[in-house]
Amino acid sequence: MDRWQHILKKSLVRSHQLAETFGLDGEEISKVIEEYPVRINPYFLSLIQEKDDPIYRQVVPDEQEIHDDVGMYDPLNEEGDSPVPSVVHRYEDRALLMVTHQCPVYCRFCTRKRFVGKAPIPREMVRRGIEYINAHNEIKDVILSGGDPLILKDKELEEILRGLREIPHLEIIRIGTRVPCALPQRITKRLCRMLKKYHPLYININFIHPREITGEAAAACGRLADAGIPLGSQTVLLKGINDDPDTIKELLQKLLSIRVKPYYLYQADLTRGTEHFRTPVECGLDVIRGLQGRVSGMAIPRFVIDLPGGGGKVPMLPPDYVLDINEREIIVRNFNNEVYSYPQPEVEKAYKGG
Ligand SMILES: *Cc1c(COP(=O)(O)O)cnc(C)c1O
Questions:
Q1: What is the reported pTM?
Q2: pLDDT digit string (tens) for 105-145?
Q3: What residues are annotated to the active site?
Q4: Do 54 and 199 fall within a single domain?
Q5: 340: domain range?
Q6: Which of 284, 300, 315 corresponds to the end of one domain?
Q7: Which atom belonging to ligand 1 lies closest to the Cα atom of 312?
Q8: Measured between alpha carbons, how far is residue 310 from residues 46, 72, 201, 316 in Å?
Q9: Is residue 313 within 6 Å of ligand 1 at its C-beta?
């Protein structure tokens, strides 16, 4: 067994362990985790400094999870866009392939709370997903998801990557993961040597709070980057965890310094059991407004809402940059609150497109 597997095995998963570790009511915890399983591995546990801090809130169950009647079971209607059980095919040229229901920690704010940590995905189901992708030559880009694909053993993951790389029309493979952040020991040199055989491969990592950028997480990202894998981040805005501009700014700048390019900043989904984490949309707009012109453009992600009901991702920009667009000019307000004009070209005056 590898070191990371030993670490994972020592995770807190039972109500009495949580009750003892955090001084909580074991009966209450057990009601929550009957519905939504818990896993806090010793590495992520070591990042908690005190009760209710931003790391604690991500992974310690809360009674509010089972008293949410706003959130939906499947807020993005992934099941409606699922032609076979392991695939979500919403955008023509891209598809999600769910390869596992396990994760290095079970985030309390997870969009897929409805199934993560519960029954495993049979390998046969993943195989049928790969067949679906093979039969649909409009799919150029596959995102391995779940669950967390990097929680699979090297051999299982390689079997999936090999199967996908045999599909001639498939160009890009992406992996969505929290492992470099939540269990960085799993990013072994051996894993990186295996992954680099399947380029072009991209990895997007869910980092939530600047305290997650430890020496170990930095080293894990360094090993992946050295294997030629472009790294992006996907961060969810969460009330009481990272919902202020300074925290997000610090996170984004630290990510750049460990070679992770911020990709998306998400408004929280309307997932059942997560309502207590949802921030007003203005919070994300304020974050973006505070970044523009003040930090490296490389550090600025796109703020998006993934629409309930399966409408897809929509970019959200502060509404106050564009004051007017007409045939002659566009009038804009810059990051310093100064108004400028940009003249339109003559030839485009008849422009009707867009
Ligand atoms: C987010 C998502 C994708 C990928 O979208 P990009 O904007 O290309 O990163 C693909 N399929 C589904 C169903 C998604 O939710």
A1: 0.96
A2: 999 999 999 999 999 999 999 999 999 999 999 999 999 99
A3: 90-91, 94, 103, 107, 110, 112, 269, 306, 313
A4: yes
A5: 322-354
A6: 315
A7: 15
A8: 37, 12, 26, 17
A9: yes
